Amino acid sequence: MKHFKGTSEKRHHLAVLGNAPMFDITVPITSPTIPPVENIMRSYKKIFKSGMLTNFKYVEAFEESVKNYTGAKYAVATNSCMNGMMLILKILGLKGEIIMPSFTFHATAHAAAWNGLELVFVDCDPETYNIDPVKVEAAITKKTSAILGVHLFGNPADIESLEKIAKKHGLKLIFDAAHGFGTIYHGKKIGSFGNAESFSLSPTKLLTSGEGGMVTTNDADLAKKLRTGRNYGDPGNYDSEFSGFNARMSELHAALGIESIKALEKNVVRRNKMVELYKKFLSKIPGISFQKIESGNRSSYKDFSIYIDESAFGLSRDHVCEALGKENIITKKYFYPPVHVQKAFQFYPKRDTGLKITCMVSENSLSLPLFSHIPEKTIKKICNAVLALHEHADEVKKSLSKNFM
Ligand SMILES: Cc1ncc(COP(=O)(O)O)c(C=O)c1O
């Protein structure tokens, strides 16, 4: 059995063929890179002393640091990305149809469904995996009120094309920027595009506050209403102006966010380096390709996804996922199944416009472990495991089907 040059890895005998797993301790798909607990404790002591546990100075300071990082004029902290999106759609007063990708995490669609909108799923680009602007324009009807783009896995959507389409047809443009802290589009950090962008701060993201979200926008009126909306629609005088809900961020979450954002840039750079390392080895294996990042853009690499062409690699994505699992390597089939076939949307008013590429990408993609502090050695070992699977594809397939019966 071969192994990649430059990796000190010894010959490996695959666990799926009855040998010991490559890793004694499970390699997670992701792991939050968080600051030392002592740094947070200093802030927590102050918060506890003040008795102000939510929506106060730390939240304001965190919003300020996100404004500085993204360059957006306004940042409004929420308790999740999805709640941020729900509020944006509600405040923009959207009705009728909203166009979005199906190759995304289902929260994108849930935010629109909770607003009573009719979901129109359009296909993604086969290389960038982001929503295809040509398909978006073709799907517009008299009922369309908005486009909801996603920066998938941290790869920025084709913002310029989407902005042109939105302007031409008088549509709102919103971005699900859940994966987007650290993403750069045409040399500029995302956060100021479209009407608003909603980021996630949950623990699988590059920047986390435990749970949480952040909406960024250049629209002063929208920002003001978002602040009211995250407080049940109450501007502070108990005379609620519209039906919002509780989407506030606590001071404790904000304190973690403030400490974590200090290392964000360093972490994005390191992730990009680790992805280069993955690509250096994996690109030598037949049947493996990668999400395309257009030049001038930077992915945050919230996820690193490989596309597996079964006929060239010798094994399907599902086989690879299962066999790597036996090596104690956790991988994820992001995003499978695509949203338009999920149970929640089976009987929901929706229109799909031919989602061939979405299905193909969804059925053949696999996210490999990636986190900001992942050791290089771990990546090299994972690459060796993938190479070994390719070289022993027939035996692996037989072994997996035997266990299946
Ligand atoms: C594309 C996308 N949108 C929305 C969300 C929801 O984020 P949150 O859990 O902060 O609401 C996620 C979560 O991972 C996501 O991947």
Which homologous superfamily in CATH is the superfamily of the largest domain?
Answer: Type I PLP-dependent aspartate aminotransferase-like (Major domain)
What fold name goes in the CATH topology slot of the largest domain?
A: Aspartate Aminotransferase, domain 2
Instruction: Specify the number of helices.
Output: 14
Helix and strand pattern = HHEHEHEHEHEEEEEHHHEEHHEHEHH
Portion of residues within helices: 25-40%
Which ligands accompany this protein?
pyridoxal-5'-phosphate
Query: Which CATH class of the largest domain?
Result: Alpha Beta
| Major β-sheet strand ordering | 1-9-8-5-4-2-3-12
The structural domain count equals: 2
Main sheet?
8 strands, mixed
Question: Mean of the pLDDT scores?
Answer: 96
* Portion in strands: 5-15%
Q: What is the total tally of β strands?
A: 13
Distance between the termini: 28 Å
Rg (CA only)? 22 Å
What is the topology?
Blueprint: H1 37-50, H2 57-70, E1 74-78, H3 81-91, E2 97-101, H4 107-113, E3 118-122, H5 133-138, E4 144-150, H6 159-169, E5 172-177, E6 184-185, E7 188-189, E8 196-200, E9 213-217, H7 220-229, H8 251-261, H9 264-282, E10 288-290, E11 304-308, H10 310-313, H11 317-326, E12 350-352, H12 356-364, E13 365-368, H13 376-391, H14 393-404
Parallel strand pairs: 2-3, 2-4, 3-12, 4-5, 5-8
Antiparallel strand pairs: 1-9, 6-7, 8-9, 10-11, 11-13
Helix pairs in contact: 1-8, 2-8, 3-4, 3-7, 9-13
Residues 80-82, 104-105, 107-108, 150, 176, 178-179, 200, 202, 204, 213 line the site of pyridoxal-5'-phosphate (PLP).
